[in-house]
Design brief:
The complex is a heterotrimer of chains A (405), B (282) and C (587).
Chain A (H helix, E strand, L loop, with lengths): L2 H4 L2 H22 L3 H13 L1 H19 L3 H27 L4 H32 L6 H21 L2 H4 L1 H28 L8 H22 L4 E2 L5 E3 L2 E3 L1 H22 L1 H11 L1 H6 L4 H27 L1 E2 L5 H14 L4 H23 L11 H15 L14
Helix pairs in contact in A: 2-3, 2-5, 3-5, 4-5, 5-16, 6-11, 6-14, 6-15, 6-16, 7-9, 7-10, 7-14, 7-15, 9-14, 11-12, 11-14, 12-14, 15-16, 15-17, 16-17
Chain B lengths: L10 E10 L2 E11 L4 E5 L6 H8 L7 E6 L3 E2 L5 H6 L2 E3 L12 H8 L8 H6 L2 H20 L15 H14 L4 E5 L7 H18 L2 E5 L3 H7 L2 E6 L2 E6 L1 H6 L1 H8 L3 H9 L12
Parallel strand pairs in B: 3-8, 3-9, 6-7, 7-8
Antiparallel strand pairs in B: 1-2, 1-4, 4-5, 9-10
Chain C lengths: L3 H25 L1 H4 L4 E3 L3 E2 H19 L9 H29 L11 H7 L2 H8 L7 H21 L2 H19 L1 H5 L2 H5 L1 H11 L7 H17 L4 H15 L7 H47 L8 H15 L13 H20 L7 H20 L4 H4 L17 E3 L3 E3 L3 H24 L2 H11 L1 H6 L4 H27 L9 H14 L4 H17 L7 H15 L8 H12 L5
Antiparallel strand pairs in C: 1-2, 3-4
Helix pairs in contact in C: 1-3, 1-4, 3-4, 3-7, 4-5, 4-7, 8-12, 14-19, 14-20, 14-22, 14-23, 14-24, 15-16, 15-22, 16-22, 19-22, 20-22, 23-24, 23-25
The chains are: A mainly alpha (405), B alpha/beta (282), C mainly alpha (587).
């Protein structure tokens, strides 16, 4: 079998396992044999470890027989086992009918809100990675910077009653202000910490970025104190119809993403960005000012993160100095999911991650009998990160990279 | 520990194919290199020579075909470390040393596969480990001396001059105790005098160490002077094969080079005496 | 002819940067927090030292980076420019103080309280030093002081190297000793020995800070020491001598051996001489040294940037915790002893190292870093979750972990009997395990395994082509690193006697990473230096606690930009990098 076809075997096997489970579930539902199906599920749950071991051993044997490298079997077996586990959990959750369809819709809605924020932050990671091939680990802190600084403006606006009287202009003002602050932070970061290392070995900028991340986080703590700052509440109504903050956030995020895409696709600077992302040296030879493009990239990524910060604060209503760290990591996951360096990928990855994270605990874990599954939300997100990086490091939309000598 | 003393190994490459997406870099290629010979692979830039090397050494898994060493060992299903242990060593076109290790450490890494101390022996510093380390250090010094780098063992590989880096890479390859040595453009960037020395050196290597040598080279003077057999490849396919004289006279070879530009033609026809300028093969 | 205008602009820019740094430091709260550390009684505390130090440094940099030195009249111009740069720092501070006193910034900036501005205006200090109330003219006073200090900084830069080194070391000696005063007096050896206490301690120190006489003594002593025992050339010669002698097969006793012997004696004597406070700090340092040695194998030797290293630390701690806990309410009660549980902890660590290592075998560089980070986070989330609560105790963690030993009286031949406290016993346990870890690291580093790791770090593909089995080699690195970390975790568990998931965050991984980077990648002594500097110091100087991570961040960035080889680089790296990075051979 050719090497090319071989890499589809593991996903195919995983999908087959998933399909079998779903078909079984469907048959059970159609023939009104839920109890029968549930007793099968119950059996599988009681002997869960044995079942998993069987799935693992089976897929390992098959993959090893097909492939040249035993490692493919070890890893692929793990992947298929995870798929089986997830498929089993999902089937069991759905079969138990614990949540109504409106519950699921609520989960998806919450996921979309969270996901659109991830998507905005993820764009910053992806833009920078596309151009510099570096992970800007401190990007989560750029997000924090915007949100925390804009808090003071929000506070003033709320105290003067402006926020209540003119909610939409106030929110626009807040978003712009946060975007500006974050942009400044991102540009300074590039200038001070990253630019001198542009040609250093790859791990050095990563370590620098980790350092910058901590530095910024604790600078915010020092400047603004370690307490939680609660954003004022915004009641939004258009023509007398109340609009939930969530809807506003999704809308804003979509608008911003649209702006970004048109910027990258239509303007001259956007074209320069794409050229530099394609081949930095060639772009420089064509007379593109690479430094300027890089600064622009950081500025745009920063601005989007700042805007995301305000949107985040509108939904979750509180800011704190470490608020950006976990969303930052998640957004990075989203960027990786969509194929790092890929702009539409980051958006789709963000939304996808948001939804998985919000639906996942109830869909995948509840059925497995995990107590308080929502606690494991982050574990799901990070597992996705790990799985994608291991099995498809170029992401869902990314292209396959040829191993270079 | 000591050399395996099996002597030079023959190499059979049968119908090897390697594709990258839509590009077929090596296309149904068959080569046969007798044990103990010096054989060259030539061809225009991008003909697939380095890809062939990468397939032989296990860096790429060929998509089809087989590669057999010494008539018994099938290489095409093995990892590079296994292939190296069977006696295949290589150097790289754009020198790839371990830059932050010293010269002697580079050679010691090459000796890795010939040392056998286990974790436990290393931790308790057993007599066997000590003996082995002493042997390895002595062997590494000998190898450095053999390639003309005696006394330069303690400098970082990165800080050696270009010519010394080439030699160090040779020493490192020899340290693996090869039966087949693959040299990827060993004279790239060298002047005429250095090239002449390299020719002598490769011959001496083959005779002293009992090796089969497979070369990729652009310098036709060297190729014609040193090779016992030459294979010409273009677009991943073999277009000619034979003794230097036969290949030089082969019209298909001239055609392959003609298509690629006048400079190359001139060089092939006149066997130009100036060093190869286009040492880069992507 | 020098570009004079360019030079002045540069100095102005340096002054402005200095000013901004000062304002940032002030807003973050350092200036305020540092007032508690008096360095020289009645003269200088750490806060003022920081404030004035920034001006001095700005003046110094303005001259040190100047190319005007050899020009006609250059020296005079450079000093003037130093003063100019200093004045700009001072002026930035003055503007900041004026604004801060006029507007209330404290609703935005947590630390911008009136006291801060009084400190920055140097009100109290100027009064103490000059004896008159200078408050009405504070701006003038600050500016003139800034000019003088800036000029002094420039003068310092212009001095010949030995003198400059002497002054630098004298000043740092004074600052370090002054800062450490309350630690010194809490040291048993000083507290309980009348000779040391009355003869030395009380000459040097007043109740709060060094006495002016003490400061002078320390300064002169360090200055003299720098002249007699210069760094650099001599140290380099010693290393070279050692290497040549070793190569020739001659047995040599070098200052290095003597140093190691003295160090060993010191470490053994340490808990008796220094007392519990210090011992406790050294326990923590030791735990981090163990982790540092382990991560050094993974990152420093094998070049696999593992950001989830805390996972193995957690596994070690939880294994020992769960197996030995005597908490009768725990759902899982095993009740093993520490020594019975330790092998399980190591085994679990190794297994986890391999299990988490397998998936990342084919990934490299930053992807590997992020995957391991993901693993670390997953394990932490699991530890808090209800899912693992029956075993790991959820957010309540594992409590009532017994001490690993029950030492009574030790009868030592010839030395009489000893009654080590629990604290001391733990110290020796950690010390012993550190020694074992150093030995293992050292043996491996100088073997075919160590070389294989380093080849892997340098170029994975070529390493494989040299006959190195990548899978085995990488997994061995992960497993060894994990084993060290899980031993560290086991010690952590018995040291604190209770463990909570909160102790196993990403911060631990970052902490260990920073310490090996600061110490010097792939350098064994570097791990010690890094752990002492980054774990020991903040433990000892509690005011720094709030700024610890901030400083870590700054240190990481700074090291990567200016000194990627670390404070105590691996020997070879030192020799070679010394040339490459600083553009000149080491002196």
């Amino acid at each position: 079998m050719s090497h090319g076809a071989r890499r589809f075997i593991a996903p195919a096997l995983g999908l087959i396992v998933l399909a079998v489970l779903i078909v079984l579930g469907a048959i059970a539902v159609v023939f009104g044999r839920e109890t029968w199906f549930q007793s099968v599920l119950g059996l599988a749950r009681d002997y869960g470890l044995v079942c998993l071991a069987l799935v693992y051993a089976g897929s390992y044997v098959v993959l090893k027989w097909l492939g040249r490298d035993p490692l493919d079997g070890v890893l692929g077996g793990g992947g298929i086992t995870v798929v089986a586990l997830v498929g089993f959990g999902a089937t069991a959750s759905l079969a138990s009918a614990r949540y109504s369809s409106s519950d699921w819709l609520d989960f998806v809605y919450a996921g979309l809100t969270q996901g659109s924020i991830y998507a905005l932050i993820a764009l910053g990671y992806t833009l920078v990675y596309g151009i510099l091939r570096m992970i800007n680990f401190a990007h989560g802190e750029v997000f924090t910077g915007g949100a925390m600084t804009a808090y003071f403006l929000a506070d003033v606006l709320a105290a003067r009653g402006v926020l209540a009287r003119y909610p939409i202009p106030s929110i626009v003002l807040l978003v712009l202000f946060a975007a500006l602050v974050s942009m400044v932070i991102a540009v300074l970061l590039e200038r001070i910490a990253y630019r001198p290392l542009r040609n250093a070995p790859r791990l050095i900028p990563l370590i620098t970025a980790i350092g910058a991340s901590f530095f910024l986080q604790y600078t915010f703590r020092g400047l603004y104190g370690s307490g939680i700052k609660a954003y004022p509440n915004v009641d939004l109504a258009v023509f007398g119809i109340a609009i939930a903050n969530e809807a506003l956030v999704i809308l804003c995020a979509l608008l911003l993403m649209l702006t970004l895409v048109s910027f990258v696709q239509l303007t001259k600077s956007g074209m320069a960005m794409r050229a530099v992302a394609e081949d930095r040296e060639a772009a420089a030879l064509m007379g593109i000012d690479v430094d300027r493009v890089i600064v622009t990239t950081f500025a745009i990524g920063g601005a989007l993160a700042g805007a995301a910060g305000v949107l985040y604060a509108l939904v979750f209503r509180q800011t704190q100095f470490y608020m950006g760290f976990i969303p930052g990591l998640k957004a990075f996951t989203a960027a990786v999911l969509g194929g790092i360096g890929n702009i539409p990928g980051a958006m789709i990855g963000g939304l996808f991650l948001g939804i998985i994270e919000s639906v996942g605990p109830f869909l995948f874990l509840e059925g497995l009998g995990v107590p308080s599954p929502n606690q494991l939300k982050d574990a799901i997100a990070f597992s996705m990160l790990v799985l994608v990086l291991i099995f498809r490091p170029t992401g869902i939309l990314g292209e396959r990279v040829v191993k270079r000598a | 520990m000591a050399g395996r003393g099996l002597g030079p190994a023959s190499l059979e490459v049968r119908s090897v194919t390697k594709r990258f997406g839509g590009l077929t870099a090596v296309d149904d290629l068959t080569l046969s290199i007798p044990a103990g010979s010096i054989h060259s692979v030539i061809g225009p830039n991008g003909a697939g020579k380095t890809t062939l090397f990468n397939c032989i050494t296990g860096f790429y898994a060929p998509d089809g075909g087989s590669i057999v060493l010494a008539g018994t060992h099938a290489l095409h299903n093995l990892r590079s470390d296994q292939i190296t242990r069977l006696g295949v060593a290589r150097t790289y076109q754009n020198i790839r040393l371990f830059p932050q290790l010293t010269a002697i450490e580079n050679v010691l890494v090459g000796l890795h596969g010939r040392l056998t101390s286990g974790l436990f022996g290393i931790l308790v510093n057993s007599a066997k480990t000590r003996r082995e380390e002493a042997w390895a250090t002595a062997e590494a010094h000998d190898l450095l001396e053999y390639v003309g780098l005696s006394g330069k063992g303690d400098g970082l590989a990165n800080n050696l001059p270009y010519g010394d880096q080439r030699r160090l890479e040779m020493a490192r390859a020899l340290a693996t105790d090869p039966r087949l040595l693959l040299l990827d453009e060993p004279t790239a960037g060298m002047n005429t005098g250095e090239t002449a020395k390299m020719i002598d050196f490769i011959r001496r290597l083959r005779d002293d160490r009992g090796l089969t040598v497979l070369l990729i080279e652009h310098d036709m003077k060297l190729v014609m002077e040193i090779s016992e057999g030459i294979s010409v490849i273009d677009f991943g396919q073999k277009i000619a094969e034979g003794t230097p004289e036969a290949v030089q006279a082969d019209p298909r070879v001239i055609e392959a080079y003609l298509g690629r530009g006048a400079a190359e033609v001139l060089r092939v026809l006149r066997i130009d005496r100036t060093p190869s300028a286009d040492g880069m093969d992507p | 002819m020098m570009d004079q205008r360019g030079e002045w602009t540069r100095s102005a820019r340096q002054g402005l940067i200095g000013g901004l740094v000062l304002i940032l430091i002030a807003l973050i709260g350092m200036i305020d927090a540092f007032t508690k550390r008096v360095i020289v009684a009645g003269l200088l505390d750490l806060s003022q030292a920081t404030w004035l130090g920034i001006i001095l440094l700005t003046g110094y940099l303005s001259a040190a980076r100047s190319e005007d030195r050899d020009a006609d009249g250059g020296v005079r111009r450079m000093i003037t420019r130093g003063a100019f740069a200093g004045v700009i720092v001072g002026a930035s501070a003055c503007v900041f103080v004026a604004i801060g006193r006029e507007l209330d910034l404290s609703w935005i900036f947590d630390k911008a309280r009136p006291r801060l501005f009084d400190l920055l205006a140097l009100d109290a200090w100027l009064q103490d030093v000059s004896g008159t109330d200078l408050r009405p003219w504070w701006a003038l006073a600050v500016l003139s002081l800034a000019a003088v200090l800036g000029a002094l900084g420039a003068v310092l830069a212009l001095m010949p190297q030995p003198v400059r080194a002497g002054i630098e070391r004298g000043l740092s000696g004074v600052i370090v000793l002054g800062t450490m005063q309350d630690l010194l007096i809490k040291t048993d050896w000083i507290k309980n020995k009348p000779f040391v206490r009355e003869g030395i301690y009380e000459t040097l120190f007043e109740r709060n800070g060094l006495s002016p006489l003490g400061a002078t003594i320390v300064f002169v002593f360090m200055f003299g020491l720098a002249l007699v025992w210069p760094r650099g050339r001599a140290a380099y010669d010693r290393v070279k001598h050692y290497r040549t002698a070793k190569r020739a097969g001659r047995p040599v006793i070098t200052s290095r051996h003597v140093g190691i012997a003295l160090g060993a004696i010191f470490l053994i004597w340490f808990p008796f001489g220094f007392g519990n406070l210090w011992t406790d700090v050294f326990d923590t340092v030791g735990i981090y040294i163990l982790m540092g040695l382990g991560l050094n194998i993974v990152v420093g030797f094998a070049g696999l940037l593992d950001l989830g290293y805390v996972a193995f630390f957690a596994i070690g701690a939880y294994t020992v915790g769960v197996l030995t806990s005597t908490d009768s309410e725990a759902e899982l009660l095993v009740g093993l002893g520490f020594w019975q549980a330790l092998p399980f902890a190591i085994l679990m660590g190794i297994v986890a190292g391999v299990v988490l290592g397998v998936p990342v075998l084919k990934t490299h560089g930053d992807y590997l870093a992020i995957i391991t980070l993901g693993f670390g986070e997953i394990i932490r989330v699991l530890a808090i979750s209800d899912l693992m609560k029956p075993i790991m105790g959820g957010a309540q963690g594992v409590t009532e972990i017994p001490k690993p030993y029950d030492v009574g009286r030790l009868e030592l031949p010839m030395l009489g009997s000893l009654e080590p406290t629990n604290q001391q016993a733990l110290y020796y346990l950690i010390l012993a395990l550190c020694v074992v870890a150093v030995y293992i690291t050292w043996r491996m580093r100088n073997s075919r395994i160590g070389r294989a790791w380093m080849a892997l770090r340098e170029d994975e593909n070529v390493a494989e082509a040299m006959g190195i089995n990548l899978v085995q080699t990488k997994l061995l690195a992960f497993a060894t690193g994990a084993a060290f970390a899980s031993v560290a975790g086991a010690l952590f568990a018995v040291k604190l006697q209770s463990i909570y998931p909160a102790s196993f965050g990403l911060l631990v991984s970052i902490n260990v990473l920073v310490l090996i980077i600061v110490g010097g990648m792939a350098s064994i002594p570097g791990v010690f230096v890094g752990a002492l500097a980054l774990v020991g110091l903040p433990e000892l100087l509690r005011e720094f606690e709030d700024f610890r991570l901030l400083l870590y961040g700054a240190v990481l960035v700074f090291m990567m930009l200016k000194r990627p080889e670390g404070l105590w680089p691996a020997t070879i790296v030192k020799r070679e990098l010394g040339r490459d990075i600083h553009g000149e051979a080491l002196p």
